[in-house]
Specification:
With 273 residues, the protein is an alpha/beta fold. It has 2 domains: 174 residues, P-loop containing nucleotide triphosphate hydrolases (Rossmann fold), CATH 3.40.50.300; 69 residues, DnaJ domain (Helix Hairpins, Orthogonal Bundle), CATH 1.10.287. It is built from 11 helices and 6 strands. It has a 6-stranded mixed β-sheet with strand order 2-3-1-4-5-6, with helices on both faces. Strand 2 and strand 3 form a beta hairpin. Helix 10 runs antiparallel to helix 11. The protein binds guanosine-5'-triphosphate and magnesium ion. Magnesium ion (MG) binds next to helix 2. It holds the Pfam family DnaJ. InterPro entries: DnaJ_domain (IPR001623), J_dom_sf (IPR036869), P-loop_NTPase (IPR027417), Small_GTP-bd (IPR005225), Small_GTPase (IPR001806). GTPase which can activate the MEK/ERK pathway and induce cell transformation when overexpressed. May act as a nuclear scaffold for MAPK1, probably by association with MAPK1 nuclear export signal leading to enhanced ERK1/ERK2 signaling. It comes from Rhinopithecus bieti (Black snub-nosed monkey).
Length: 273
């Protein structure tokens, strides 16, 4: 008996984990899971009714992992069914459709729903989240680009993958990295190893990139009032240039943001005496 108990604690023994899928209806949650588990794709939309449950076995390093997958329905109508299933989760597959901006904007609301259901004592710090930017095969309809999605995910310490359940692109890599990260947490006593828990860029950098991306004109981009002086423009420019210079900033989208800031300064200085 004692020997058995010791054996059970050894690394390399079977581990049971729970993962859930989250994201708006029709973004492709069920298809991503089906592509990985059954190696096939169904083009007809069959909405998940409440929850679909499945068990699968995977191997990570020398360990057998039994994965309980709870595939949630994204439609608001099923909130009462899915709210039961958030607790005791080790991993979340958070999906949006790169051709549906609404589904990307809804990611924060999905996190909020989970947080609310876990209650004040629920801890999301040690749950591994992987963001799937799905349907990348539909290139014509794409409206959320990679840097925008990656910035959102990585600034929260989440994994990010570009996927297509239709072609299979990114799916195996996504699941493999996801499961390895979950096992790392399990083997670290349920806590995220500190090296993986924080983004390699600052919140200030991420916020600046988002602000630049959403700015309405060059003044707004540099964060100065319309009619500002050359000195004010140059000062604002220098601050952003230091923050976002590609040699210093690895945040997704920093290179484009830096270029946009350079161009905004040139455009403004042309017209300021
Ligand atoms: P709910 O269960 O209602 O929450 O939706 P879901 O997120 O599970 O979506 P589902 O996987 O059922 O897919 C919705 C539709 O998108 C289906 O018609 C799929 O065939 C299609 N679809 C899913 N993934 C992809 C993809 O990567 N590319 C393309 N082109 N279509 C996809
Ligand atoms: Mg589904």
């Amino acid at each position: 008996m004692e020997a058995n108990m010791q054996k059970r604690k050894e690394p390399g023994k079977s581990l049971r984990i729970k993962v859930i899928s989250m994201g708006n209806a029709e973004v492709g949650k069920s298809c991503i899971i089906k592509r990985y588990c059954e190696k096939r794709f169904v083009s007809k939309y069959l909405a998940t009714i409440g929850i679909d449950y499945g068990v699968t076995k995977v191997h990570v390093r020398d360990r057998e992992i039994k994965v309980n997958i709870f595939d949630m329905a994204g439609h608001p109508f099923f909130y009462e069914v899915r709210n039961e299933f958030y607790k005791d989760t080790q991993g979340v597959i958070l999906v949006y459709d790169v051709g549906q901006k609404d589904s990307f904007d809804a990611l924060d609301a999905w996190l909020a729903e989970m947080k609310q259901e876990l209650g004040p004592h629920g801890n999301m710090e040690n749950i591994i989240f992987v963001v799937c930017a799905n349907k990348i095969d539909c290139t014509k309809h794409r409206c959320v680009d990679e840097s925008e999605g990656r910035l959102w995910a990585e600034s929260k310490g989440f994994l990010y993958f570009e996927t297509s359940a239709q072609t299979g692109e990114g799916i195996n890599e996504m699941f493999q990295t996801f499961y390895v990260s979950i096992v790392d947490v399990c083997e670290n006593g349920g806590k995220r190893p500190t090296t993986n828990s924080s983004a390699s860029f600052t919140k200030e950098q991420a916020d600046a990139i988002r602000r630049i991306r959403n700015s309405k004109d060059s003044w707004d981009m540099l964060g100065v009032k319309p009619g500002a002086s050359r000195d004010e423009v140059n000062k604002a420019y220098r601050k952003l240039a230091v923050l976002l210079h590609p040699d210093k900033c690895v945040a997704p989208g920093s290179e484009d943001a830096f270029k946009a800031v350079v161009n905004a300064r040139i455009a403004l200085l042309k017209n300021i005496k």
